[in-house]
Automatic annotation (TrEMBL):
SUPFAM superfamilies for this protein: lambda repressor-like DNA-binding domains, Periplasmic binding protein-like I
Keyword flag Transcription: yes
Domain HTH lacI-type: 2-56
Upper taxonomic lineage: Bacteria, Bacillati, Bacillota, Bacilli, Bacillales
Origin superkingdom: Bacteria
Record flagged with keyword Transcription: yes
Name the UniProt record assigns to this protein: LacI family DNA-binding transcriptional regulator
PROSITE patterns: HTH_LACI_2
InterPro entries in alphabetical order: HTH_LacI, Lambda_DNA-bd_dom_sf, Peripla_BP/Lac1_sug-bd_dom, Peripla_BP_I
Annotated GO MF terms: DNA binding
Length: 328
């Protein structure tokens, strides 16, 4: 196996000069770069990337936190982030928090111990006060989820507007008994704001809401099955359901079909995200521009890593779009 000394001998240069070329040091002539590159090719010499990163005090690795990778929204988000990171010479590692505060805190040690150059949070499980001290170890960018306390770059959509848009669509279609199915409604800012938008749309239209029409802790298709099971038991069930994800909406729709209910005649359903599943099942949904969210978040992260300056709050707020299909 060739060594750096072999490359130096073949190129007719000193080992120091070869090292400077490999580490992209300035003030090396183009001729010397050409000689070293040719020698490396002839000897099939590959520099030790770990050693190079160590000298630069960079890992060229970015951690992305997601609550649940099986959710197509997050898997799509990570896929696009990975492509964008590769274009800039970075790789990703995926950290799945499963909506658990302790998992999120333990993964933060990756930044503290310099195993990654930065973190992208797609959800926030802890109070920001628990996360803020880690900014002294490297940059953090937030996307999808957001916090008024986070003085860092953020890419998100106004969830109040998103849920208002979807709920108003149901109202415009003539529905007055509307249920609400959501996930982590207590700690997630996204879930809290969606509920605010939902209730505001009802209030603006003068439509009452029953407590029994709220269905919580729903994240997956299976949770959609369970939500419909509870809905079906009600003496006065809702005519329509606003859900926080296409997965949940699909689960409710499938359970309704299996029970002999007609969608939307017996139960109208609206999802969130516009995942491929929503198109497959012809579900009306609120589209979030996942590709744009991912690209913007990675752009902000790479800029923060390369700037090596204290982060400042910067907001990139993107628009929603209502996708109308047969489920409403």
């Amino acid at each position: 196996m060739a060594t750096i000394q072999d490359v130096a001998k073949r190129a007719g240069l000193s080992r120091t000069t070869v090292s400077r070329v490999i580490n992209e040091h300035p003030y090396v002539t183009e001729e010397k770069k050409r000689l070293v590159t040719r020698a490396m090719q002839e000897l099939n010499y590959v520099p030790n990337s770990s050693a190079r990163r160590l000298r630069r005090q960079q890992t060229e690795t970015i951690a992305v936190y997601v609550p649940r990778i099986t959710n197509p929204f997050f898997s799509h988000l990570v896929e696009v982030m990975g492509k964008e990171a590769a274009k800039k010479g970075y790789q990703l590692i995926l950290c799945q928090t499963r909506y658990k505060k302790e998992h999120e805190r333990s993964f933060l040690e990756l930044l503290k111990t310099k195993q990654v150059d930065g973190l992208i949070l797609t959800s926030i499980e802890n109070d920001w006060s628990k996360l803020e001290p880690y900014l002294s170890f490297g940059p953090i960018v937030v996307c999808n989820e957001y916090s008024d306390s986070a003085q860092v770059p953020s890419v998100y959509l106004n969830q109040i507007e998103g849920s208002y848009l979807g709920t108003k669509h149901l109202i415009d279609q003539g529905y007055t008994k509307i249920g609400y199915c959501t996930g982590n409604h207590k700690s997630s800012r996204v879930s809290k704001d969606r509920k605010i938008g939902f209730l505001k749309a009802l209030s603006d239209a003068g439509i009452p809401m029953k407590e029994e029409w709220f269905f919580y802790n729903a994240y997956s298709v299976q949770d959609g099955f369970a939500a419909f099971k509870e809905l079906k038991k009600l003496d006065d069930p809702p005519q329509a359901v606003f859900t926080g994800s296409d997965e949940v909406a699909a689960g409710i729709a499938k359970a309704a079909f299996d029970a002999g209910w007609r969608v939307p005649e017996d139960l109208a359903i609206i999802g969130f995200d516009n995942q491929p599943l929503a198109e497959l099942m012809d579900l009306t949904t609120i589209e979030q521009p996942i590709d744009t969210i991912a690209r913007q978040a990675m752009k902000l992260m790479v800029e923060a890593i390369q700037a090596k300056k204290p982060l400042k709050r910067k907001e990139v707020i993107l628009p929603f779009q209502l996708i109308k299909r047969s489920s409403t």
